[in-house]
């Protein structure tokens, strides 16, 4: 999967913005100001960090050993790094983007959830 496909999928979600706060090689995508993915653009194949339920994170790392790793520079209990090579089906990647997005949306304050609904 390339950066354009990944980025477009994320940006089509409600309330998502992008920025480069960690320098030009790390694209950060947020929902209502909260990070749900970081894309490391200097690596080939592309690497992305996604938030994940802790138990599911462990299961994914075991099932996709070498392609899904503990989150690089993140809380390894709650974040995974996906290496977007041919070993990961795009459908799975999009599912995990949705999961990360939903975890963040569910953790938003009531005020932010209401603002998101009204977008």
UniProtKB/TrEMBL annotation:
It holds the Pfam family YjbR. This is MmcQ-like protein.
């Amino acid at each position: 999967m390339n950066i354009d496909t990944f980025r477009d999928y994320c940006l089509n979600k409600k309330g998502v913005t992008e920025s480069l706060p960690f320098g030009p090689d790390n694209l950060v995508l947020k929902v209502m100001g909260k990070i749900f993915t970081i894309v490391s653009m200097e690596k080939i194949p592309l690497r992305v960090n996604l938030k994940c339920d802790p138990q599911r994170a462990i299961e994914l790392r075991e099932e996709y050993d070498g392609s899904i790793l503990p989150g690089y520079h993140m809380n390894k209990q709650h974040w995974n790094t996906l290496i977007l090579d041919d070993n990961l089906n795009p459908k799975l990647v999009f599912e995990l983007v949705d999961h990360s997005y939903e975890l963040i949306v569910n953790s938003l304050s009531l005020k932010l959830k209401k603002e998101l609904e009204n977008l």
